[in-house]
Amino acid sequence: MNRSTVNKWEARGHLVMTVDGLVNVEASDDLLTKRPVAYRGGTAKGPVAAAPPSSAAGAKLASASPLPASPNLDPPAQSDATEVVIAALSTIVREIGACAARRAVEFGATLQMAFALDVATCLDASEIGERFLASIGAPLAALWSLVEVADSHHGGIVEADWPALAEAAGKPLDLTALEDWFSRLPNFDPPKDASHAKC
Question: Whole-structure pTM over 0.90, yes or no?
């Protein structure tokens, strides 16, 4: 084994070997017990774990100035965090109705039930999200709902694939009849500016 190979192994923190191929036990033990401290990986074992770094590498780490913080890794300001929460909640509101309708048909519900779940789940998710925002001190503007945020900022509410759902249910599709049926339900109280087209 040549000296350059031994030097490379030493540099990588492997066992230290002498030129004649024998293991230098003292140097290897020093490297193996102090390596985690010097190279910031793992945890040191034995008396080294309790002692402050005294090796040259440990001294270099202790005296080195910290890296400047990346602006992209800093925690977001409160307004940014609020915007992220609003975006996440409005995305859920945007997509949950279509998911509920699809699942309803998968579980054997009628198209009417799927349509009702589509609209009601979307509106309920919006209400739950708005209550959550108010509870953390970040309510939406007085005239906005998460449905409207999804409409204006996320390209609208995701529509269920009604033709595919009707085919899966084995029924003809008449969206106008579904909307009329739903709006006549006695327990449906539409919010200030919501229609199925928006939700």
Answer: no
